[in-house]
Amino acid sequence: MLFSTKRESRPIMFSKYAREVHRTQSPCSSDYRRMMLRPCEHVARRILCHRTPPLRMAHSTWSNFQRESKQNSVIERSRILTANDEHGLLEFAPVEEAPCMEASACVHEGASSVVSRFRENGLLRLNNMLPTSDTSVLKHYVDHLLEAGIESVGGTKGTPFLHLFGPVMVRQNRFDVLLPLDKIVLPIVQRIMSHLSNVLIELTGADTCLCELSALVSDPQSPGQPVHHDTALFEGSNRRMSLLVALQDVHEDMGPTIFFPSTNTEEWHINYMNRGKELENLLENDNHMMGVLNEGDAVLYDTNLLHCGSANRANKRKNQGGIVPEARRTLLVVSVQVENQLNAGDHSNIRPGYRGKFRIVDHAKWHVAVEA
Question: Which CATH number fits the domain that encloses residue 213?
């Protein structure tokens, strides 16, 4: 669909067919996927993935990884088409600053004060969550794990994709690397919990556990994601909170996450499924918040909140020496939730054998994990 550059021209964002699909089907259901393939298939085949294999990697390994990750599937390409429409509306929407405080305030001011500020919008920016000594080490480690993971999935080992990567939405040049809770990652996560554990417990419950541990990587030319929520209010699952920690400065052209404040409600989940004027107005006219962060800063958000990753266009940004080399955006992801029968069947981006084993209240006693 084409978008006019004139502000007064309103693009037609959602077709009658798309509205019906979203009204009647969950985005995760097989019926939804089948319905979405038919109208998009002829267009989707024209969208190509341009990422070249990493240096020293066989082309066959990269091709096998692309196949195993399903990053070129029709459903993935249809998501790109949806995202293009949505981000066209977002281009003119007003942006506001996210509510912000120092990470140390989570301890000094007490959990109740922090939770009160968080609940105003369903998200809160926390500055200086990690020192640069931690972020630098972890970022280089994630780079290593990413390349090793591609080799393991696409090479002769044939490791299942979901053992090392999460099924992130829009996988073209975007990866969700599942992290081991080893001697490198463990002390960093424990440092985060020393700031945040009481807040997370008050938000989710005394028995809350680590349920996701990964690194979201967005390389240049990764497209934007469609607006979505990570968890759905109508599924009866326990509340989940996620923390995104910037492992380098995240500039506006590096694909920062876009958040829509106060959309973690049943009303907004209904509007999202209906795909009608309310959602279009949210994207085009309502304030949204951008996850533009300094290295070590973080955003805590309710996973019921509507949000999306934007496109990474950092390869087009230049400095005096040419193309800026630090164009990859990497975020540490730590999520918590009470684990029981209500959400036992829900997918979580965490290594096999970790889920339900690490209670937040006991974070100081955690040891290096043994994987299943």
Answer: 2.60.120.620
In total, the chain counts a number of residues equal to 372
Among residues 178, 177, 167, 215, the alpha carbon closest in space to that of 71 is found at 167
In this structure, are residues 152 and 190 in contact, taking their beta carbons and an 8 Å threshold? no
Tokens at 307, concatenated: 């949000």
> 127 in a domain, yes or no?
yes
Average pLDDT, the chain: 84
* Domain range for 240: 16-365
Q: What percentage of the chain reaches a pLDDT higher than 70?
A: 81
Strands 100-102 and 289-290: unpaired
pLDDT in tens, 63-114: 999 999 999 999 999 999 999 999 999 988 999 999 999 999 999 888 999 9
Please identify which residue in the block is written with the tokens 């404040």: 261
Note whether residue 332 is domain-resident: yes
What tokens does 41 get? 């298939």
- 298-302 sheet: strands from edge to edge: 100-102, 123-127, 298-302, 240-246, 329-338, 208-218, 174-178
User: Do residues 142 and 217 lie in contact, with contact meaning Cβ atoms separated by under 8 Å?
Assistant: yes
Q: Note the pTM of the prediction, 2 decimals.
A: 0.84
